[in-house]
């Protein structure tokens, strides 16, 4: 049963990608749909990272001793200042690990 679910989901994901990425198929998305899909990635990242940053111990933690909160704020500032994703990610991860080792 598990293999059927895994294979079925693989086929579903493949067909979903194929329909929109194959240039010979006559499927075109409207501008409103494209604009709406532009919000999918930030929304997904917020849904994944939000609980990790704000609730590391399954409780809301907005104190300055929360290394997740401080490191994510540093990451946002670094992205805005450097406009370089790799540099911002490496520096904010180093800052996070330094905070975890120090605290």
UniProtKB/TrEMBL annotation:
The lineage of its organism: Bacteria, Pseudomonadati, Pseudomonadota, Gammaproteobacteria, Pseudomonadales. The chain crosses the membrane at residues 37-56, 68-99. Pfam families: AzlD (PF05437). It comes from the Bacteria. Keywords: Membrane, Transmembrane, Transmembrane helix. This is AzlD domain-containing protein.
């Amino acid at each position: 049963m598990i293999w059927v679910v895994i294979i079925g989901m693989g086929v579903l994901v493949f067909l979903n990608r194929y329909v929109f990425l194959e240039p010979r198929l006559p499927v075109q998305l409207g501008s409103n749909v494209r604009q709406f899909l532009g919000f999918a990635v930030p929304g997904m990242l917020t849904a994944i990272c939000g609980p990790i940053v704000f609730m590391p111990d399954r409780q809301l933690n907005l104190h300055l001793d929360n290394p997740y909160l401080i490191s994510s704020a540093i990451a946002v500032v670094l992205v805005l200042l450097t406009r370089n994703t790799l540099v911002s990610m490496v520096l904010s991860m180093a800052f996070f690990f330094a905070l975890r080792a120090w605290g």
